[in-house]
Specification:
The complex is a heterodimer of chains A (486) and B (451).
Chain A lengths: L3 H28 L5 H20 L9 H19 L1 H5 L6 H12 L15 H16 L1 H8 L7 H8 L12 H25 L4 H12 L11 H4 L3 H14 L3 H10 L2 H6 L1 H23 L7 H16 L17 H10 L12 H19 L3 E2 L3 E2 L2 E2 L2 H27 L4 H12 L20 H15 L3 H4 L4 H4 L3
Antiparallel strand pairs in A: 2-3
Helix pairs in contact in A: 1-2, 1-3, 1-6, 3-5, 3-8, 5-6, 5-21, 6-10, 7-9, 9-10, 9-12, 9-13, 10-12, 12-16, 15-16, 15-17, 15-18, 16-17, 19-20, 19-21, 20-21
Chain B lengths: L1 E5 L3 H12 L3 E6 L2 H10 L3 E4 L5 H6 L7 E4 L4 H14 L3 E5 L3 H4 L4 H4 L8 E3 L1 H14 L5 E5 L4 E7 L11 H7 L4 E8 L2 E3 L12 E7 L3 H7 L12 E5 L3 H9 L5 E6 L2 H10 L5 E4 L5 H6 L7 E4 L4 H13 L4 E5 L5 H7 L4 E3 L1 H10 L10 E4 L4 E7 L11 H4 L5 E8 L2 E4 L11 E7 L3 H8 L1
Parallel strand pairs in B: 1-2, 1-4, 2-3, 4-5, 5-6, 12-13, 12-15, 13-14, 15-16, 16-17
Antiparallel strand pairs in B: 7-8, 8-11, 9-10, 9-11, 18-19, 19-22, 20-21, 20-22
The chains are: A mainly alpha (486), B alpha/beta (451).
Chain lengths: 486, 451
């Protein structure tokens, strides 16, 4: 049975993280001599809700159950977003609540779509808060908590599993908190080195920090409205960001083996990484060729390659940055971009989308199926990286793909009812479900999503949430059997 | 020489039989009384009924005076444990049969085989047998195949059929006319192995053992009339029965060979499909189902390998495959009494894990620096490698002057890394490594010449 007390206690404890993040943003407000009140109110609200939660469950000593863990995961992401929009509301960044909620959800899910029309006019602290939500969301709220705060309870494993991405999970250390700490330290290393390089290449400190927070989170919030190309006309910066987006799209477990154990060959032997690399390079080559050879384009070869690489990596890792407006490119590039958006990058990274491991498995299943037609009696094991993929994982994969399809379609439908045309509705559904950010049409990389109706924004927020949590943990709550006593 | 064998299973009893014939002191330990009493009644050995892991039992059987302790129970961990115990109690050498290919890999071999753990050698019969299967498939016209000196010197046996050039000629005539490119070390005729001399004539249906340099193998192919399209290179192989041996064989073949394994039990199919080398196809079906076999290209395979648990089935499968025109057939025959019969039935190559394992262990017994003894399971013969020492009887003499015992035939040798054949005028030098072919238990006699 669902144990509300333990849920409220655990959620309350998780809110401590948000208080810490808000404190950091308040620090930036003090640093830039800006209004601290938005953060004060938010901190008070967080502390009150968290305190109440902990108080309500103070005598509860039972473990988190399976059902509880799904509720906790969904609840905490929604709760974080609801409380996280308070600074925007107090600072009156948005003219409606829907916009603020959308922006926060887009932050925590590291989607990167923004409803903010005038980014450059905002105070530094608000922008920093925006980037910080993405940075935490990229690696996962619970992941971060498990890594850096004292034990939430002995039931970390269950809620941890509900949040982590990809069909197969493997630990690198026997204890989950140690595993999380290693992975998180890789994440922090990436962030710091990215910020350092960007600063050295001539970005302002504030921009460097914000860009690196959202690059390694594969989020895509930028502290300026303008394109990167217009902001800093520097190929080096674009290449650096491309590299870090690509690295953050790699499975962090592989990065762990490479960085801490020196086993670089392990990266290239990994089936998922090879698939990621193949899709990425394939798309870059196609996009470069089209842009370079298409008549009426102003691109030379280097520029075509740089822009294609940046955009493809940005969309495949579901970051969603744009160095230039790809809506102005030849329209035959757009389907390629939609495909890489859907594909996503590696499981166990900060990116969203379907993940290459699933495509890898599908590829093997198809290959086996064709062999099976010719040799009906053959027994064909499904091996990824030398280990057998059990039947149950294949079924879950099928269920995941079906649900992904169902939500793409219903999302498109719902957004069409909100007054968008088909291309926009479909691309937004895919983009939000994969946590990419920019879409096509009026919702390309240069545009702001303010024009969607409030209902549309809530639809988008929901799609982003289920996309980030890989559908099942959220959708399971809406099933009848979840609420049955036995 | 004192030898203690733990495990009175197939390998253990076979080994006890071989060793007791050599007049060595053999003690056989097993926890199963019925197995022991059978072996004890037939063989001149001592038996002791106890778990081989018991220290009391090991002490009682005087393991401290044992020159060799051999653990061949069906359980890998028991074998490893009792070898460690035997080593601690004072056994000079220990051999453990294992069941895990991981331990045999070059990187991990030292985990068990070292002075601390105390195991002198690991054997994995399936792996040895798998290697032998793959080796024998490389040359379809050859019945059996052994390599020496990294494969430069080859001992092979070929079945004679009518039409071969060599039939009806005296060996010395053939040798002279061909420029002494080979050396016939033995002939198996009508169930008897003979050590031939120059006047011997080769007849139809003989199984002839040639010692030859690798470069001259094609010459033998021509000489024995096998140089036609009936003996192509092996590309497609079908294995019947998904035993452990089938899995090992799949790894032993070169990667260019396509392998299909047919196994009736679905659960077993799932299991082995995870274990076989990538690219091997595992089929779930009955090997008696001709439609299935034909769908899977039965008529186009180059070799059929029958490795089921059932000897009769293996023999039948190979006989019927040969009827359908498959040149290369290999049958696993574990029942020793069947070996002779299988030979008569024209089954092709016969694989027997027991003799392979036993010959491997037998190597450890040879004092005179032998490091490869292989027993041929179709002939009552042994092949051994000897090193010529400075002060042995044979050093510095020509072969014809040594006066070798009857039944011994020295085929080839390696001198300073170079392989060459031996004839009567060859003078043996210190450091030469000789490949000897010994018929009828003459190996022990020959040993004395090299000591």
């Amino acid at each position: 049975m669902i144990n509300w007390r333990v849920i409220s206690k655990t959620s309350g404890m998780l809110l401590i993280v948000e208080v810490l993040l808000l404190l950091a943003s308040m620090g930036s407000a003090l640093f830039y001599h800006e209004d601290v009140m938005p953060f004060v109110w938010a901190i008070l609200a967080c502390a009150a809700v968290g305190g109440a939660g902990i108080y309500y469950g103070r005598h509860e000593s039972r473990m988190v159950g399976r059902k509880d863990s799904y509720i906790i995961v969904s609840a905490i992401w929604i709760l974080f977003s609801v409380l996280g929009m308070i600074p925007y509301l107090v600072a009156q960044t948005f003219h409606d609540v829907a916009g603020a909620f959308f922006e926060t959800m887009s932050g925590f899910t590291s989607t990167g779509a923004t409803a903010l029309p005038n980014i450059d006019d905002q105070p530094h602290s608000i922008l920093f808060w925006r980037s910080l939500t993405q940075w935490i969301g990229g690696i996962g709220i619970i992941f971060f908590t498990v890594a850096f705060l004292p034990a939430v309870g002995q039931s970390e494993v269950k809620i941890f599993a509900a949040e982590s991405t990809g069909p197969i999970h493997n630990k690198i250390q026997p204890r989950i908190s140690v595993t999380a700490r290693w992975i998180a330290s890789i994440y922090i290393m990436l962030t710091i080195s990215c910020a350092g390089l960007l600063y050295l290449l001539g970005m302002s400190l504030f921009d460097a920090i914000n860009f690196s927070l959202t690059t390694t989170a594969t989020g895509g919030f930028a502290p300026h409205s303008a394109m990167l190309h217009e902001l800093y006309d520097s190929p080096a910066i674009e290449y650096v960001i491309t590299f870090f987006m690509f690295a953050s799209g790699t499975n962090f477990t592989l990065l762990y083996w490479a960085i801490f154990k020196g086993q670089f060959s392990k990266i290239f032997q990994d089936h998922e990484f090879r698939c990621y690399l193949a899709i990425c390079f394939g798309a870059i080559i196609v996009a470069t060729t089209i842009m370079y050879l298409h008549p009426h384009t102003p691109f030379n070869l280097e520029l075509s390659f740089r822009e294609a690489a940046f955009t493809v990596v940005s969309l495949q890792t579901t970051t969603g940055y744009a160095s230039c407006d790809y809506m102005l490119w030849p329209s035959m590039v757009h389907p390629v971009l939609l495909i890489v958006m859907l594909a996503g990058s590696c499981s166990g990274s900060t990116s969203g989308g379907m993940k290459c491991i699933r495509l890898s498995i599908i590829n093997r299943i198809l290959r086996n199926e064709f062999i099976h037609i010719l040799h009906p009696r053959a027994i064909l094991p499904l091996k990824i990286n030398g280990t057998i993929i059990p039947q149950s994982v294949r079924q879950t994969l099928l269920a995941f793909l079906s649900l992904f399809g169902v939500f793409c379609v219903t999302g498109t439908l719902a957004l069409s009812f909100c007054g968008l045309n088909l291309e926009e509705a479909m691309s937004i559904a895919i983009s939000t479900l994969s946590n990419v950010g920019p879409a096509l049409g009026r919702f390309g990389p240069t545009q702001c999503w303010d024009i969607i109706s409030p209902t549309g924004k809530y639809v988008c927020s929901f799609l982003m949430l289920i996309g980030r949590l890989e559908i099942f943990p959220v959708v399971i709550i809406f099933t009848r059997s979840f609420w049955m006593k036995n | 020489m004192n030898i203690v064998i733990a495990g009175a299973g197939a390998v253990g009893t076979h080994l006890a039989k071989l060793l007791s014939k050599e007049r060595l002191n053999v003690v056989l330990i097993d926890s199963d009384e019925t197995k022991l009493s059978k072996a004890g009644a037939e063989l001149d050995i001592m038996t002791y009924n106890s778990s081989p892991n018991s220290i009391k039992a090991l002490k009682y059987t005087n393991v401290d005076k044992a020159d060799l302790f051999i653990a061949v129970t069906p359980f890998e961990s028991v074998n490893i444990t009792c070898c460690m115990l035997a080593h601690q109690l004072g056994a000079k050498k220990t051999v453990a049969r294992i069941d895990n290919y991981e331990y045999m890999s070059a990187a991990n071999y030292g985990v068990f085989v070292n002075n601390t753990v105390g195991i002198s050698s690991l054997i994995y019969p399936e792996m040895l047998a798998g290697k032998e299967i793959a080796d024998s498939c490389q040359y379809t016209w050859v019945r059996q195949w052994w390599e020496f000196n990294n494969g430069e010197l080859v001992l092979l046996s070929v079945k004679m059929h009518q039409g071969a050039d060599i039939i009806g000629k005296k060996l010395k005539d053939v040798a002279t006319s061909s420029g002494r490119k080979f050396h016939v070390v033995a002939i198996k005729r009508d169930g008897e192995t003979i050590s031939p001399h120059g006047d011997e004539m080769i007849k139809d249906n003989d199984l002839v053992f040639f010692m030859v340099l690798r470069d001259d193998i094609d010459f033998i192919k021509v000489l024995t009339g096998k140089d036609n399209d009936s003996y192509p290179n092996v590309r497609d192989v079908m294995i019947i029965g998904g035993s452990k041996l089938a899995v090992r064989a799949s790894w032993a073949f070169p990667k260019t060979v396509n392998i299909k394994i047919i196994e009736p039990d679905e659960e077993r199919c799932n299991r082995i499909s995870e274990l076989v080398r990538e690219g091997t196809m595992v089929m779930c079906g009955d090997s008696h189902d001709i439609t299935l076999l034909e769908d899977e290209g039965f008529d186009h395979i180059d070799a059929l390998i029958a490795l089921t648990e059932n000897d009769d089935e293996n023999i039948l499968a190979c006989v019927s495959a040969r009827r359908r025109g498959i040149r290369r057939t290999i049958a696993q025959v574990e029942n020793m009494d069947y070996l002779e019969m299988a030979e008569d039935l024209d089954v092709g190559t016969i694989i027997n894990k027991k003799t392979i394992a036993a010959s491997h262990i037998y190597r450890m017994l040879m004092k005179a620096d032998v490091d490869s003894v292989k027993m041929l399971n179709v002939a009552d013969a042994e092949v051994a490698e000897f090193t010529v020492k400075a002060k042995s009887k044979v050093t510095g003499k020509q072969i014809k002057d040594i006066g070798l015992p009857k039944g011994v035939n020295l085929g080839g040798m390696m001198r300073n890394g170079e392989s060459m054949l031996i004839n009567g005028l060859t003078e043996l030098q210190e450091g030469d490594r000789i490949v000897a072919f010994c018929v009828e238990n003459t190996l022990k006699k020959l040993e004395k010449y090299f000591r």
